[in-house]
């Protein structure tokens, strides 16, 4: 029977997410169960969104919603559905006092002001792939609030910095549905078993290969990249590395995390500060990456050290196997 021995509590592959959360909670004498319940609420929202995605074409939730989000991006119907489902699950769960979302301009006050946690989410990642049956995802990041209990959360609760995340993760809706998360003690993955309606531990203690042969970026932006990025991509081609780009950050990140590879979204003419959002795309994936032995940088510093100054701030992202990220950084 395979067990994980590293930093985690030894948990056999095949146990449910619930049981795994309990095992990990018991490891911390100060744990009160609120974070555990919050992780369960996120998993529940993931199951609901998974169901909506699977039957999207049957219940007319494909295509545009006719509105733009705060980033000026056209919202897809599933962006809006996923956003509503997540917010509802977190409010009903009662463990969260505030939420920020890619699809909402400002902080969502849940009314649960006695709760300790705030959550930042990208309800549906890979929006351009929604209607064409290509893997998409959800990304989440959790902080313990710094504002006083009993009061409404404030922007400071969300701008604490990447190293202050108490948990982070994503759900990948692909050929199978998998939830991957960390609470700062390694990374584990849970595959959704439809027949049981349960997330089951399938990837205990994920470690990313030190090096890789896969590189992921949008070739269409190549001409607007800085010279060090183009130099690195030329080197990858010279070495006949595999170019793989789904166009869903979660999907590209997950593949490279398991197989070894690097994902690059540098500044472009269209997005001179980078395209991806620091609080609910870069920070959570950077925490996962580092916990799995990989690296994440904005080109100049660890992503987790980038100072957050606004809710929907963007950042360049270079994330993946340690050797590959180091090689890229050595070209600056
Ligand atoms: O189409 P582009 O410019 O390559 O951008 C693709 C990237 O943008 C994203 O779709 C942005 O995320 P959202 O879909 O959540 O807005 C990433 O998932 C993806 O990696
Ligand atoms: Mg996204
Ligand atoms: Mg999104």
Please describe the structure with a list of short key phrases separated by commas or semicolons.
332 residues, Fructose-1,6-Bisphosphatase, Chain A, domain 1, D-Maltodextrin-Binding Protein, domain 2, 8-stranded mixed sheet, 5-stranded mixed sheet, 7 helices, 17 strands, 28% helix, globular, disordered N terminus, binds 1,6-di-O-phosphono-beta-D-fructofuranose, Fructose-1,6-bisphosphatase class 1
Write the layout of secondary structure elements.
Elements: H1 17-26, H2 34-54, E1 64-68, E2 74-76, H3 77-93, E3 96-101, E4 108-109, E5 117-125, E6 136-144, E7 167-173, E8 177-182, E9 187-193, E10 198-203, E11 214-216, H4 227-238, E12 242-243, H5 249-259, E13 262-265, E14 276-277, H6 278-291, E15 295-297, E16 314-315, E17 317-320, H7 322-329
Parallel strand pairs: 3-5, 11-12, 11-13
Antiparallel strand pairs: 1-2, 3-4, 5-6, 6-7, 7-8, 8-9, 9-10, 13-17, 14-16, 15-17
The structure holds 1,6-di-O-phosphono-beta-D-fructofuranose and magnesium ion (2 copies).
One magnesium ion binds next to strand 5.
């Amino acid at each position: 029977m395979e067990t994980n021995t590293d930093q985690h509590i030894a948990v056999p592959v095949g146990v449910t997410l619930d049981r795994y959360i309990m095992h990990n909670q018991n490891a911390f004498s100060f744990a009160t169960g609120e974070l555990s319940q919050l992780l369960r609420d996120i998993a529940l929202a993931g199951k609901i969104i998974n169901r909506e995605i699977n039957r999207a074409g049957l219940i007319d939730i494909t295509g545009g919603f006719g509105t733009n989000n705060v980033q000026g991006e056209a919202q897809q119907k599933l962006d809006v559905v996923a956003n509503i489902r997540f917010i509802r699950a977190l409010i009903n769960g009662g463990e969260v006092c505030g939420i920020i979302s890619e699809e909402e301009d400002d902080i969502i006050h849940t009314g649960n002001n006695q709760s300790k946690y705030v959550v930042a989410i990208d309800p549906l990642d890979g929006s351009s792939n929604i209607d064409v049956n290509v893997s998409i995802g959800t990304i989440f990041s959790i902080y313990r609030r710094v504002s006083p209990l009993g009061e409404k959360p404030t922007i400071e609760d969300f701008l604490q910095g990447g190293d202050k995340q108490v948990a982070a993760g994503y759900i990948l809706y692909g050929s199978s549905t998998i939830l991957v998360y960390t609470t700062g003690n390694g990374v584990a993955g849970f595959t959704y078993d439809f027949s049981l309606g349960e997330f089951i531990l399938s990837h205990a203690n994920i470690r990313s290969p030190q090096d890789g042969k896969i590189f992921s970026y949008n070739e269409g932006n190549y001409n607007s990249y800085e010279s060090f990025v183009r130099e690195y991509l030329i080197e990858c081609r010279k070495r006949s590395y595999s170019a793989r780009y789904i166009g869903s950050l979660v999907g590209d990140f997950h593949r490279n995390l398991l197989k070894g590879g690097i994902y690059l979204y540098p500044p472009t003419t269209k997005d001179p500060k980078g395209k991806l959002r620091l609080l609910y795309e870069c920070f959570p994936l950077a925490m996962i990456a580092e916990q799995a032995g990989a690296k994440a940088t904005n080109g100049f510093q660890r992503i987790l050290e980038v100072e957050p100054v606004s809710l929907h701030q963007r950042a360049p992202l270079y994330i993946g196997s340690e050797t590959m990220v180091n090689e890229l950084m050595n070209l600056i």
